[in-house]
Amino acid sequence: MNLLVAAGAVFRDAGGRIMMVRTSYKDAWEIPGGMVEDGETPSAACEREVREELGLEISVGQALIVDWAPHPTQGDKLLFVFDGGTLTEAQHSQIEFLDGEILEYAYVEPARLTDYTLDRLAHRLQAVIPGRTRYLENGRPPEADPRPRSPGTTP
């Protein structure tokens, strides 16, 4: 099995909205983050990606979501979403799009995430319960998927 591992950060504003970033290479908006490199932990990858994409030095908090996301053409993915906390005014003023991947960012109400991003990421972010780590499959709790599950098969 060829497993891809990715990590992203959820930043919220004082009103509970989630930071989404528009990239130069995708139509759908994303959260800051990216692929975990060989020998790198998911939390270190998340911090590196935030540094590369936003120019911010941060330490991520706990893992909020661990999501198993099989895909027939892109390969199976294990996705980690970490708590990035709430950025200060000083941090907002330091945001720079250093690597050219990010074009802009916006804070989005959780109920409006599907207007900005793919359903599976919207479901993943809407499943966040602050202070808890949740396990998901394809952006949803396993018990919410009505398809039968058996060893050796993916939903």
TrEMBL record:
The keyword Magnesium applies. Pfam families: NUDIX (PF00293). It comes from the Bacteria. Residues 1-130 form the Nudix hydrolase domain. Its cofactor is Mg(2+). Keywords: Hydrolase, Magnesium. GO terms for molecular function: hydrolase activity. InterPro entries: Nudix_hydrolase (IPR020476), NUDIX_hydrolase-like_dom_sf (IPR015797), NUDIX_hydrolase_CS (IPR020084), NUDIX_hydrolase_dom (IPR000086). SUPFAM superfamilies: Nudix. The keyword Magnesium applies. Residues 134-148 have a biased composition (Basic and acidic residues). Coiled coil: none annotated. Residues 133-155 are annotated as: Disordered. Belongs to the Nudix hydrolase family. This is NUDIX hydrolase.
